[in-house]
Amino acid sequence: MKHGLTLVELIITITLAAILGTAAGLLFSEHITGAMRARDSTVGMNLARGEMERLDSLNNFFATPDLNVLCPSGAEVVTGPTAFSGYPYSYTRRVRCLEGDCCAAGTNSQGVKRVQVTVTKTGSGETVATLVTYRTKHVAFGS
Amino acid sequence: MHPRRAFCRTTLVRRQSRCGWLLVGLIVLVSAVILALAGITFFLTEHLTVTSLRQNQTKAIYLAQAGIMQAIYDFRRGTGITLRSYKVDDPTTTPGANDDQFILQPILSGNTQADLLLMSTRGNITVPFPQSNFCGAISRDRFQGWTVRNVQASGGTSLVVASFKVNWDVGTEGILRLDLNGTSVDWQDATCAGFPKDTAISLASVPVANRTLNPGTRWPTNRVWFTSAAMDSKAWIDITFIMSDGFSKTVHWDSTNAANSTADLTVKSVGEVHAGFFPFVLWRRVSARYRVCATVSGSQCNATSEEETQPGALVAYQELTALTP
């Protein structure tokens, strides 16, 4: 005659399985969350970098609205969030005059702008990457 | 005795054996699961660390770029470059220990004297000097109109010239004399034979004070004398100053294309990031060569104010090798 597990054995087995399963589930969940966060960070940072390089390539302190500040105060101009085409992310650009005069075009006045690009997840608005740099008036990139 | 108990007792040995294997299997299973979970946890942690590291590396390079821009801004507004740490959101204050920041490196830990020495040939350069009684009644040429400047702000380091050399495209003329910061002789070849081109000539005989540039100091008039009057036909002339720390700066003059004449200073900046998934500090270091008067030359670039206010350009930009250790 063949016998199955006793009730006690079954309860112990189910309990152990539940404990292990819960722990495993939590860890897998964390892993998936972490992996997605890492992906967001990586993709978001690359997109932020792309936007930063685009701003550098404009090579003009004044004549592009992308680098404008409020004049004459030099106060911050916030643009966005603007969706990246083909990605579930958006970017927000913040430009303000950090020091000097960022509005007058004459070469006798000097100024430096603070440029910040923040990439967020479209929908949730969660920040995944932020980059900050400066731009100085009358300084071009390249000879 | 209850029939069931009797049955259990009679089959006890066989059931113990099966239960034992079950226990072994369970232990193996649990061990495998624990190992797998530990591995996943380790992998996840490492993955996030690497991601955070890459994020901060990217942040740091743009902070370093901000340092370059701050230095050029300080130069352009006439205050000179100050080598110190700057808080990224408020460069007028000293950053706290946990603030993201950029550092304009002090000379002793990265920059050289030559970096902050601005030698310019974009002003009014003249070469001919048709007659002279210097070293005999022979026509000599002298190269003048090039300027030298220490671009550091007050409180910075003095720059000391130890030796110099001059080079040009073709010809075997010699170098007779050097005048620094004026028209008086500082060094001369006593034999009048002339030193060969591209050969370092020591200025040890010149008083240190006469070859020291204090912070913010500019020498508007400097001259190099040659043995012949044929120097005005040269395609190019290079002057190199070798500083007391051994590093050198070369200024290039192009006789036909003024745009190729140089007036460069070098700025090195470190971007330092403190925040991240894990509490480690990360930095990256960049070097940029800034050319004053990038779009003009001649009379439009022969004064301090013109060097500062005429449009400039970053003509070279590179990351230096020393990354976060």
Mean pLDDT of chain B: 88
**What is the H-and-E element order of chain B?**
HHEEEEEEEEEEEEEEEEHE
Low-pLDDT windows of residues of chain B = 4-10
- Tell me the fraction of residues in β-strands of chain B, as a range: 25-35%
Determine the number of helices of chain B (DSSP H or I, runs of at least 4 residues). Answer: 3
In whole angstroms, how far apart are the ends of chain A? 93 Å
The beta-strand count of chain A equals 5
Task: Name some characteristics of this structure.
heterodimer; A: 143 residues; alpha+beta; 4-stranded antiparallel sheet; 1 helix; 5 strands; 36% helix; 30% strand; B: 325 residues; 8-stranded antiparallel sheet; 5-stranded antiparallel sheet; 24% helix
Structure in words:
The complex is a heterodimer of chains A (143) and B (325). The N and C termini of chain A lie far apart (93 Å). Chain A is rod-shaped, with a radius of gyration of 27 Å. In chain A, a hairpin with a 5-residue loop joins strand 1 (77-83) and strand 2. In chain A, 27% of the residues are buried. With 143 residues, chain A is α+β, with helices and mostly antiparallel strands. Chain A has one helix at 7-58, and strands at 77-83, 89-100, 111-121, 127-136, 139-141. A 4-stranded antiparallel sheet of chain A has the order 1-2-3-4, covered by helices on one side. Chain B has 3 helices and 17 strands. Chain B is an alpha+beta fold and 325 residues long. Chain B is elongated and about 115 Å long. The chains are: A alpha+beta (143), B alpha+beta (325).
